[in-house]
Amino acid sequence: MLVRAGRLATRRYKTRGRKAGWLLLLCAGIGLGVLVSSFFQRSWQATPQTRIAAEPVPTLPPEETKPDERTLTLAGQSWYALQLGVYPDANAARQQAEAYRARGAGGYIFQKDGWRVLGAAYANRADAQAVMTQLKTRHQLDTEVVEIVSPEITLRLTGQKGQLTALSDAFSAMEKLCDHLYQLSLSLDQQQTDAKEALAALQSEQETLTALNGRLQSRFGASAPAAVLSLEQTLSECARSLGAASSAQSLTRLGAQVKYCHLECVCRMAAYAAALAE
């Protein structure tokens, strides 16, 4: 079954209008330990361009085998993450990350001058700094705001029509997923979405990524360019994290998993764009 990224853009989460809970203070934004350092606090002055060329796949349906060429732009974006701590080794970071997840934070780990644990990511610096101040004054928790930059990239794609459509749909889905997880996390922290609604939304996102990944694999085959293989891995890992939310035993744990998924989406796409820009 073909699942287009457009279905993500039309999804809405139900709200209930309850008062915000204390989790809003802990990480009211948005949470595998991947190595992501090249994009961390990095700025870009121009729009890098890269070309992705694919080998023809003869087994595609005839209407999808027509030669095609497109230009696709991946929008640049900055997210502002709350760093909860830096630890000398992976075990210490994992222990602390788990402790933070029990309190509703994402507990996402990456390595850069030590092992760093992130709690949530925000769309603007002011929101991140406001929560940082609240955590300090109300919970005596010291945090730091760090910027995660995803550079704008212009891609020149050549291949078969079916290949390029699958690729552009996958890029679109990942860009939208970051925003949707952010909004879902806010809604959970403010107690405007219940566990059933949140789990249904996450399952839908997981099914979308899995279907898009299947399309990429079937349309590019074993000769897929490295950039496509990397995107397939990103889709697969993010889908796996979305699926892990089904095992959450409480609303707090569910909120933590949504933050984790959001941070993973943000970090993986930033690292992917930075790799293309090199």
> Average pLDDT value?
81
Number of strands: 7
As a percent range, the share of strand residues is 15-25%
- Listing every helix as H and every strand as E from the N terminus to the C terminus, the arrangement reads HHEEEHEEHEEHHHH
**Measured on Cα atoms, how large is the radius of gyration?**
19 Å
- Which regions are unreliable across 5 or more consecutive residues at pLDDT < 50? 1-48
How many helices in DSSP terms? 8
**Count of the domains:** 1
* Sheet with the most strands: spatial strand order: 4-5-3-6
Q: Summarize the main sheet.
A: 4 strands, antiparallel
Backbone shape: elongated
**Structural class, judged by helices and strands?**
alpha+beta
What's the helical proportion of residues? 40-55%
Q: What is the first-to-last residue Cα distance?
A: 35 Å
Describe the secondary structure blueprint for this structure.
Blueprint (H helix, E strand, L loop, with lengths): L5 H4 L13 H5 L21 E5 L13 E8 L2 E11 L2 H12 L6 E4 L3 E8 L2 H15 L4 E7 L2 E8 H29 L5 H26 L5 H19 L6 H27 L1
Parallel strand pairs: 1-7
Antiparallel strand pairs: 2-7, 3-5, 3-6, 4-5
Helix pairs in contact: 5-6, 5-8, 6-7, 7-8
Description:
- By secondary structure, this protein is of the alpha+beta class.
- The protein has one domain.
- It has 8 helices and 7 strands.
- It has a 4-stranded antiparallel β-sheet with strand order 4-5-3-6.
- α5 packs antiparallel against α8.
- The chain starts with 5 loop residues before the first helix and ends with a helix.
- Residues 1-48 have low confidence and may be disordered.
